[in-house]
Amino acid sequence: MITRCTVIVLIATGYVSCNGWKYQDEENWSPLCKEGLHQSPIALDSESAKTKDYGSFNMTNYGRRFTVSIQNNGHSAEIRPDFDGKVPEINGGGLDQTYALDHLHFHWQSEHTIDGFRYPLELHIVHYAKKYSDFKSAKNYPGGVAVVAVLFDLSLDDDMDFQPLVDIIEIVKDQLNAPKAMGNFVIRDFVPRDRAGYFRYQGSLTTPDCNEGVVWTIFTSTIPISKKQVHIFELLRTEDNSMLYRNFRSLQPLNDREVFIRKNPGHRITAGANINKISLCSSVVYLLPSLLFFFRGYINSC
């Protein structure tokens, strides 16, 4: 009985252990994580953010097909493409230099919130400034890293473009640091088609050592995903075989920072709209047999 209770507590608190740190034990993360003034993630507010027209992004090689390695690294599902000399790059959109793609990884639930709502999944597309040799070097310098965050909103149906990746993640969920190859991976499929609206602020990496100076972009448009697909991420295991039920860091103080937003005139942020629709539909489906039984009894009594 004690063992079962312990498991429940670990799951409920989001216990994760990897390389000496745990999501449930943020107080014992490296010093900068606790003392830094420009940490991530933060709560994004579409009303208080300052409007700024940064312009559109230029995404090079985002539409190419890559073979990628997908692995459970103990604290996320991580994707590393085999670039074969064609490294995806991003510039424009208010970025003052060109950034090269390093890797992609997921957080469930979302790390950032928009207008008080936390989404079921958040993708981080991690880039480093091209003037540095690699991500490891770039993360030590202000503006050396740029992360593009994509939020996922719940849908009643599976997202079929997303399903091949989910199938691989299901295979590696119990295999720590055992990469599985996947072909025909197109990065552009994992960013919203409508990329006109986004938040921008200066922050940090969201895992130790929480290096600051990261340029954050969070799109306001989302990608659909089903509850069943999200659940596959929740089945990943850590190095001590605990369930990786959730892997998001707590929200950090804004302090003296400014948050900017490039508003999309054709899009209104409706955080959690799909969640509410799904909950309503689920409730109707759940109650339908009882309602039919009630009305049948009522009609028979007339």
From TrEMBL:
Catalysed reactions listed for this entry: hydrogencarbonate + H(+) = CO2 + H2O
EC number in record: 4.2.1.1
Signal peptide limits: 1-18
Chain segments annotated as transmembrane: none
Source domain of life: Eukaryota
One Pfam family, short name: Carb_anhydrase
Enzyme class: lyase
Cofactor: Zn(2+)
UniProt domain Alpha-carbonic anhydrase: residue ranges: 19-263
Keywords: Lyase, Metal-binding, Signal, Zinc
GO CC annotations on file: cytoplasm
GO MF terms held by the record: carbonate dehydratase activity; zinc ion binding
Function of the molecule: Reversible hydration of carbon dioxide.
Annotated family: Belongs to the alpha-carbonic anhydrase family.
UniProt-recorded name of the protein: Carbonic anhydrase
